[in-house]
Design brief:
Number of domains: 3
Mean pLDDT: 93
Structural class: mainly beta
Helix content: 10-25%
Low-confidence stretches: none
Number of helices: 2
Number of strands: 30
Largest sheet: 6 strands, antiparallel
Radius of gyration: 39 Å
Oligomer: single chain
Shape: rod-shaped
């Protein structure tokens, strides 16, 4: 009788732990990035009543006779199945589609989590919004290149920057009239930006040929310096040649002196290229003009954008420029169930998890980053309520065993009467 009571007590202890796990899962049913736990039980050692025997030449063998002595907690492990990605519409909310963890903090105390609600602190560090732990990744160098072979570090972003882009290319289009007389000119004004973002004005003077040396299908062009009045010839010239259909013949066109446009004090030299490929020479009015140029005035940071899939961080400027400044890292583990749960929906490396393999998203078995989404808890409430019923019935059955064993013991005591 005593043996059955101790067996039932082991079951009561296990069912209580089972309920504890179910309770924690249900409590975190709406916790972003939470991974549910499951309980696996094992029977305890069995008492040997008879070891059995091997068969002989005259008699068959017998099987062992054992009585089990209860149940024991096998282990509690996290379930790392994918949670549903919930759209938030906020670009700095990040979810992971597939395996992997965001990396927070450095070296000792480093945490790993599927919870990716990011924000910038007052110093410009990319941090987890709830905990303030600094997100780990790589910073871009001065050229915007990101070396992901380097060790990860804090991602600090300067959002008080301004940025301009010097004009590197100017495209001209329209028509240079075939009705123009030899020697006629057509002056086109253009605005370009220097490296400080200041607008600089210049013009291009086209002169139609009309001599044996320069036939009428050839136009010479000259960059004019408009910083003085009247404008004078500046630096940069060449010729453009049209075929019999009035289309430009780029192979016959030539370039003379390289272009140089005056700039603001302290700015880099400004030497854009001129693209004449869209010009025509048809019997129509002069419509030649500057159609585009790729320079931009100074602009301030208007937004921080984290791209999906690879987690590259870019600054968006008010002038339309985009500057690549860093990249979010992901970690994966050979045995993620070996991780140890910590507070704030995070994990720390365990003795059996293996080392963190930190790298770029969508590579090396690491999942992709879904910006504008957060991963919901993977708790299955229907399953958890079913587990609750199983734990409750198991507890009730074990309690009844103790009651029955007690009644039998009472009968045994009553035999003396």
């Amino acid at each position: 009788m005593i043996r059955s009571m101790y067996t039932a007590i082991s079951s009561l202890s296990l069912q209580q732990k089972y309920l504890d796990v179910v309770s924690n899962n249900l409590a975190n049913a709406n916790t972003i990035g939470f991974k549910a736990s499951r309980v696996l039980s094992q029977d305890q050692f069995a008492q040997m009543m008879s070891p059995g025997s091997a068969p002989t030449t005259t008699q068959g063998g017998t099987n062992p006779t054992q009585i089990g002595l209860g149940v024991n907690l096998g282990y509690i492990s996290s379930n790392f199945t994918q949670g549903v990605l919930q759209s938030t519409g906020r670009n700095m909310d990040l979810g992971i589609q597939g395996d992997g963890f965001f990396v927070y903090g450095q070296d000792v105390g480093r945490r790993y989590s599927r919870e990716g609600s990011m924000s910038l602190d007052m110093e410009g560090n990319l941090v987890n919004s709830a905990t303030g732990l600094r997100t780990q990744g790589w910073l871009a160098d001065a050229t915007g290149a990101i070396d992901t072979d380097l060790a990860v570090s804090d991602i600090q972003i300067a959002t008080d920057k301004t940025l301009a882009k010097a004009t590197a290319s100017v495209t001209l289009g329209g028509n240079l009239s075939a009705n123009a007389a030899g020697g006629d000119t057509n002056i086109i004004s253009m605005g370009v930006y220097d490296s400080l973002g200041a607008m600089q004005t210049a013009s291009v003077r086209f002169t139609r040929g009309g001599t044996a040396a320069v036939p009428t299908n050839v136009w010479t062009w000259q960059v004019m310096d408009t910083t003085v009045t009247p404008a004078v010839a500046g630096t940069g010239d060449g010729t453009i040649t049209f075929d019999a259909n009035g289309q430009i013949d780029l192979t016959a066109s030539t370039t003379g002196a390289a272009i140089s446009i005056p700039v603001s004090a302290g700015a880099d030299p400004l030497a854009p290229t001129l693209d004449f490929s869209n010009l025509t020479q048809l019997a129509a009015a002069d419509t030649a003009t500057v159609t585009s140029q790729d320079g931009l005035p100074a602009g301030s940071v208007s937004d921080v954008f984290i791209s999906p899939n690879d987690g590259i961080i870019s600054l968006m400027y008010s002038n339309g420029m985009i500057e690549q400044v860093g990249q979010v890292a992901l970690a994966r583990f050979t045995n993620p169930t070996g991780l140890m749960k910590a507070e704030d929906t995070s994990f720390i490396a365990g003795l059996n998890s293996g080392d963190a393999q930190i790298g770029v998203a969508s590579t090396g078995g690491r999942g992709s980053i879904a910006s504008g989404n957060l991963e919901a808890s993977n708790v299955d409430m229907a399953q958890e309520f079913t587990n609750m019923i199983l734990a409750q019935r198991g507890f009730q059955a074990s309690s009844r065993v103790i009651t029955t064993s007690d009644e039998i013991l009472q009968e045994l005591v009553n035999l003396k009467r």
